[in-house]
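Hi U.,

Before I forget, here's the chain from the pilot set. I'm dumping it here mostly so it's searchable later in email.
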Amino acid sequence: MYPVLPVLWVYRNYDDRWTVHLEGEDSEWCHPTRNDAVGAARLIGESYGCYRLYLQLTDGRFCLEMMNLSRRREPRQMGSEGEN
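Structure:
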């Protein structure tokens, strides 16, 4: 079984507002600027660890951004584990 990769969309809706939509959800989040919407979508995607993000460009075309974040380990503290 493969993990489900969340798919997010950032697009300009019929009210001319930049919108973030997560596939499989009924909710949409509107933002005043494209940059705000992209930032919000990336935060949502990063919370899953990996994502696909379709971004509407100002000319109406879409581009795809894919991200796969590995789990980050906490940095070791100085003076721990074998250091005297």
